[in-house]
Write a structure and sequence with these properties.
Shape: elongated
Distance between the termini: 91 Å
Protein name: Type II secretion system protein
Largest sheet: 4 strands, antiparallel
InterPro entries: N_methyl_site (IPR012902), Pilin-like (IPR045584)
Oligomer: single chain
Structural class: alpha+beta
Number of strands: 8
Strand content: 25-35%
Strand order of the largest sheet: 3-2-1-5
Keywords: Membrane, Transmembrane, Transmembrane helix
Pfam family, one: N_methyl
Organism: Marinobacter suaedae
Number of helices: 2
Radius of gyration: 25 Å
Order of helices and strands: HHEEEEEEEE
Length: about 150
Amino acid sequence: MRIAPRVAGFTLVELVMVIILIGVLSALGIGLFAGRSAFSPLLANQQLASATLLAQQAALAGNSAGTLTVEQAAESFRFTVGAGSPEARVFSVERAGTSLTGVALPLTLSFNSLGEVSSGGSTNLTFSGDTTYQTCISSLGAVYSGGCLP
């Protein structure tokens, strides 16, 4: 009766290759997160759309939080839904080299009980950084990508 040699574990070459692979993947991952300024205009655009929808829904529900205030601070964008009301919610997005153009800031939009913008006009906003995202808030309260149609 012959006993076969026992083979278990990893070779030194396999372990070194795994360590190198983990190092390369982590270096790539850190680079992706460090250069997030390209995504900042998109994130700010999406946060604006969410805050606008929340303010519009509050107005439709008849509570006092049916306003949206957009501000640009040195380090972040601030979206305040229902400023001055007990239901106020503040959302903040890091600017990271992004700027907001197209409107005078701070911008305050009020929504009526039908969910429409009380001022009656459409609003064009442009978030610019490494990329540019344009957003339209229509007079009916709809938020969509691209510029407002005349």
